[in-house]
Design goal:
Blueprint (H helix, E strand, L loop, with lengths): L1 E9 L1 H8 L18 E8 L12 E5 L10 E3 L5 E3 L6 H4 L2 H15 L6 E5 L4 H12 L3 E6 L4 H6 L3 E4 L5 H8 L6 E4 L3 H7 L9 E3 L11 E2 L6 H12 L7 E6 L3 H9 L6 E5 L2
Parallel strand pairs: 6-7, 6-9, 7-8, 9-10, 10-11, 12-13
Antiparallel strand pairs: 1-2, 1-4, 1-13, 2-3, 3-5
Helix pairs in contact: 3-4, 3-8
Length: 277
């Protein structure tokens, strides 16, 4: 489907695609290419085999065709696209394909009961805060790690915050949860993942979103679902206030390089989007 883009989400994955580290994820197109993996907008035209979506519909979805979303128009595949429900803004909808569905997937995979403890390692970014908010909505106790600049937004949604620049993460975490965490969601990877993984009661409940080496630690990589059903579920959760992204910056399309640079340096809090229309 040809989409007029209203809002595009900005994600760390975008600069990884630009670097060539994950070639082929979004169609494997050669450079130069348009970046962006998620968008909300309006259907301008559709292929004859598209079902359930019509020209003029407000939609949001994953850009898995290689078209990119930092643009006035893009092409989305219908199975990875859903209608924006009434009452949900395009700005919020544009954040759901990556951060929203990731939060749903990782917490579904953990399957923790109310009252359980979960550590979100790297809580301050767009995905981390979304995971934390949804976890709190599921009545989980959430502890999150991050740098000093991430504290305000994390504590503002009810996270118990550990500042890795000012505290020993292992000691601080064991003080808060002496018996170990029921689950760990890792968004930082690398050395940071290896530091927190032993804090889990069961290594199988360490779920990594970005670090594919997590099985070496006994953990699991997140099982992603990028279909229309999961998008619709995320949208319903957003309407109910259980999955509300913390949007901290809205850039015009002309400022897309700065928007990406903000996410790339790893120090941005919350979600960054590009307002196209």
């Amino acid at each position: 489907m040809l989409i007029q883009v209203d809002v595009a989400g900005v994600n760390p994955l975008d600069h990884l695609l630009r670097s060539g580290l994950v070639d082929g994820l979004d169609g494997g197109r050669p450079f130069p290419r348009v970046l962006g993996m998620e968008a909300a907008g309006t259907v301008l035209a559709r292929g004859e085999n598209v079902e359930g979506l019509e020209v003029g519909d407000a939609v949001f979805g994953f850009a898995l065709t290689g078209g990119g979303t930092y643009a006035e128009t893009t092409v989305l595949s219908a199975p990875n696209t859903a209608r924006i429900p009434e009452g949900l803004s395009a700005t919020v909808a544009a954040t759901l394909p990556v951060a929203g569905t990731t939060a749903v997937d990782v917490l579904d995979q953990l399957g923790l009961p109310a009252g359980a403890t979960v550590l979100v390692n790297g809580v301050g970014g767009g995905v981390g805060l979304t995971v934390a908010r949804l976890a709190i909505g599921r009545e989980l106790r959430v502890i999150g790690t991050g740098g000093t600049a991430k504290r305000e937004h994390a504590e503002g949604i009810g996270v118990q915050f550990i500042d890795y620049t000012a505290q020993d993460v292992t000691a601080a975490a064991r003080e808060l949860v002496p018996d170990g965490f029921d689950g760990i969601v890792d968004l930082a990877g690398g050395t940071s993942l290896r530091t927190v993984a032993p804090l889990a009661q069961d290594s199988r409940n360490v779920i990594a979103v970005g670090d594919m080496s997590v099985p070496d630690l006994g953990g699991r990589f997140v099982e992603r679902r990028v279909d229309r059903e999961n998008l619709e579920r995320s949208a319903r959760l957003a309407l109910d206030g259980l999955l509300a992204p913390v949007i901290t910056a809205v850039h015009p399309l002309s400022d897309a390089p700065a928007a990406l640079a903000t996410v790339e340096d790893g120090h941005t809090s919350g979600k960054v989007v590009i307002k196209v229309a």
